[in-house]
Amino acid sequence: MHPTGKAQMTDSGAIGVIAVTERGRTAAGRLQAAWPDRVRTSTENRAGEQLRSAFADCGAVVAFLAVGATVRALAPVLGDKHTDPPVVCVDEALQHAVAVLGGHHGGNALAVEVAGVLGCRPVVTTASDAASAAPLDSYGADLGLTVADTAPLAPAGAALLSGRPVRLEFDGDRAWPLPPLPPNASTATPRESAEALLRVSDRAAAPEAAPAVPTVVYRPPSLVVGVGSARGAAAEEVGALVDRTLAEAGLSARSVRALATVDAKADEEGILRAAAERGWPVRVLPASELAGVDVPNPSEVVRAEVGTPSVAEAAALRAAGEDGASAALVADKRKSENATAAVARLRPRGRLALVGLGPGARDLAAPRALAELHRASVVVGLDQYLDQVRDLLRPGTRVVASGLGQEEERARTAVAEAQAGAAVALIGSGDAGVYAMASPALDFAGADIDVVGVPGITAAVAAAHRLGAPLGHDHAYISLSDLHTPWEAIERRVRAAAEGDFTVCFYNPRSRRRDWQLPEALRLLAEHRPPHTPVGYVRNAARDDEHAAVTTLAAMLDGEVEAVDMYTVVLVGSSASRTVAGRFVTPRGYTWRG
């Protein structure tokens, strides 16, 4: 309800901003400028009334007020932490953005966002975030896991954060690809010694005594209910059959991800209303697809009517097994007078994130890349890259490090970990898809895992920006490493780039054992480029010991090539490239008009 007592529609995407002082109004204007489509600003002096109004009407609140004043004003309208909007307070000096309410439900993230705009520090006080541990009330939320409102989160969380033994349990033979938990939480913890239990299960609670320790049950979205019916079957009959089918199989309705049926029943009111009453989406499948699904209870009568020998069982299996997932029936077909129902369970797939860390500097790593590191339960990578990001990993994250030259082993290891059901991040520098780990990993990855790619800033891009704008027109990337590619193939590519008049970026240009390839490549380019062609090279781009230089093709061939090693990116201009005020520029080719 609105504070006036009238029903009010909430704009869940809006941020209500409350400011009553001149300094607060100025800062509110900065938020408005940064997020013009999100911010709803109130600068009236009736702070309490405006706070309560924003709390009722908006999806989040930012108050340029003291925490105490904000809490006292909102106390009468506070409801449930799962549904109340997050609230962030910013002090008058603009030094801190404090996540006051709804930390795990957007408040902590909003505090970080506000701090990023205003240049202050986010203050996060939720215990799990302070300890860099996964919060139990939103654990697995990105996978669709839900937790009962009555779950004993506080005592279970206290056991987890205090380092006491906690047992983790899953149904079946495959864990969901969940974020890591601290090392004291494990599937290996014996039940008899556990002081809390975290259970991921689609099984309905058995009628037994309450567990001896605090038990938090997470419901995964693992079940699909398949339904068929005669024309005009009542929603009450369909719903009752579905409920009975789940109950007899000992399954929880909270784990149902969808109700599935054949396209001939797409407009069947009884099926649609039964699903809507339970909050389930309806998945409609063509009879031709269902006809090819192997089921235990086919019916020729059904085939004659709708074109497939099974509706309920086939629809459940087909919908649960979409996108390459494997599925199995956990409740065979049950019948009522006018309807049939069956339930299939999907087998969760592991998750592989291909993460490029950028060229080296932390602030040039994509926020999404850092989030994937925070989410992964297993991180695989080159030892020196792992050393750069260990502080970003949550407690309990398993790290698999290997050395130079072991790319195939890293790729195979990461895929195997994902195939076993883990949430894996395979890391490298730059962008994972550019001379990095994405292609070898995807060579081994099948349809039995989910793959997420995270774009990263490449070494070429970082070096180019350091030098000027050498990649302003068409360009080519070429690796000069002949460890896995014959030099004859590399030479053909260099000649083609030279003849095509591309700006060329050389990766892996020169090492102690491979010292002739770069001079040879430069000589090939020199056959098609004037001696004054700009050449830039950057060693350790975007790192503390970065070194960059702009020179010429002639100078490189005259001995400056000795400054280049494997940590260097070399860019050679096209015939149109030039040096302007010491900067390497390849013109885009525009004709400017005054």
In summary, what is this structure?
This protein is α/β, with parallel strands linked by helices and 594 residues long. Mean pLDDT is 90; it is low at 1-9.
Describe the protein.
This protein is of the alpha/beta class and 594 residues long. 29% of the residues lie in helices and 25% in strands. The strands form six sheets. It has a six-stranded mixed beta sheet with strand order 2-1-3-4-5-6, sandwiched between helices. The protein has a five-stranded mixed beta sheet with strand order 7-11-10-8-9, covered by helices on one side. A five-stranded mixed beta sheet has the order 14-13-12-16-15. Helix 4 links the parallel strand 5 (96-101) and strand 6. The relative contact order is 0.06. The model is unreliable at 1-9 (pLDDT under 50).
Structure classification: alpha/beta
Helix content: 25-40%
Number of helices: 19
Q: What is the distance, rounded to the nearest whole angstrom, between the alpha carbons of the first and last residues?
A: 60 Å
Extended strand count: 29
Radius of gyration: 30 Å
Percent of sequence in beta strands: 25-35%
Could you list the spans in which at least 5 consecutive residues all have pLDDT below 50?
A: 1-9
Placed side by side, the strands forming the largest sheet appear as 2-1-3-4-5-6
Shape: globular
Mean pLDDT across the residues is 90
